[in-house]
Design a protein that fits this description.
The complex is a heterodimer.
Chain A: H1 3-10, H2 22-29, H3 36-55, H4 58-73, H5 76-97
Chain B: H1 3-11, H2 15-36, H3 41-58, H4 68-87, H5 90-95, H6 113-121, H7 126-137, H8 142-149, H9 153-172
Helix pairs in contact in B: 1-2, 2-3, 2-4, 3-4, 4-8, 6-9, 7-8, 7-9, 8-9
The chains are: A mainly alpha, B mainly alpha.
């Protein structure tokens, strides 16, 4: 066998291997990874919430909140918007997991 | 989403993104490991699975200096070496480095050439098989292959040259 023939033979790509459940088996064995950034996000959110609780003028906001919430509760458009958001989030999550 | 995006998301713990990487790379990795294990599909798949799981655990350490595939293949090669030592696979390689002639008849038809190559490759050492597979069948550069096998470039080239010479002798005798 000469060099050219050997080269051609060696350069033949490896035959593709059908997944046949291999990926699923790997994914099933995957332990949840630690998420340093997620913990950071949680810490920032918790700190923001504490600051908000400490400094927001709740008494002044209460009247406005009552007024807005009663308007929202009676609003069909707001209800439809909430429903659309919930359905969208559900579908997105389902697409990601599939 | 491109590979860089998937790697970035997986590094943040996104299992769905990593699943995409597994699906993308499983065929190559399993094929490479099947070559290394001399066609033992079951052992190759076990090693491939362990390699992916190790990659998932260590993904935060991947700095993106080379491609994800190169990094993954390096993990697989290390896993294979550990398993070969555990199972004492290397003596079989060494037994065939004595320069004895081939013990099998090779048909001269093109149809059988691939099978002949696979049989002949099994007679080579692990490093020779790996080097030839990476640089020829998988199309990596010598630099990438030396990074995967953690060998100096000169050593890799020697393995490839020695492997080629052995293959020529093994395959040439049948023609």
């Amino acid at each position: 066998m000469n060099d050219e023939n050997l080269d051609a033979l060696l350069r033949t790509p490896l035959p593709p291997i059908v997944d046949a459940g291999f990926s699923k088996a790997v994914i099933a064995r995957m332990a949840p990874a630690s998420h340093p950034l997620v913990w950071l996000e949680i810490a920032v959110l918790a700190l923001s919430a504490l600051l908000a609780l400490a400094f927001l003028p709740f008494r002044a906001l209460t009247d406005v909140a009552v007024q807005v919430s009663s308007q929202l509760a009676n609003s069909t458009a707001a209800a439809m918007a909430c429903l659309a958001i919930v359905v969208s989030v559900y579908l997105l999550r389902k697409l990601e997991t599939d | 989403m491109d590979e860089e995006g998937l790697v970035g998301r997986a590094a943040l713990g996104d299992a769905a993104a990593f699943a995409g990487l597994v699906r993308q790379h499983q065929s190559r990795l399993r094929g490479f490991l099947r070559r290394l294990t001399r066609g033992d599909a079951s052992l190759a798949d076990d090693l491939a699975q362990e390699s992916f799981l190790e990659a998932w655990r260590k993904l935060a350490q991947f700095r993106g200096e080379g491609s994800f595939a190169v990094w993954l293949l390096r993990i697989a090669w290390t896993r294979y070496l550990m398993e070969a030592r555990r199972r004492k696979l290397e003596p079989l390689d060494e037994a065939h480095e004595s320069g004895d002639g081939p013990e099998f008849q090779i048909p001269a038809t093109n149809l059988d050439a691939r099978l002949d190559l696979e049989s002949a490759l099994r007679r080579l050492s692990s490093a020779e098989r790996a080097g030839l597979t990476l640089c020829y069948a998988l199309g990596y550069s010598n630099e990438e292959a030396s990074a995967i096998l953690d060998l100096p470039l000169g050593t890799l080239k020697s393995h490839i040259a020695r492997g080629r010479a052995k293959l020529k002798a093994l395959l040439g005798n049948a023609q």
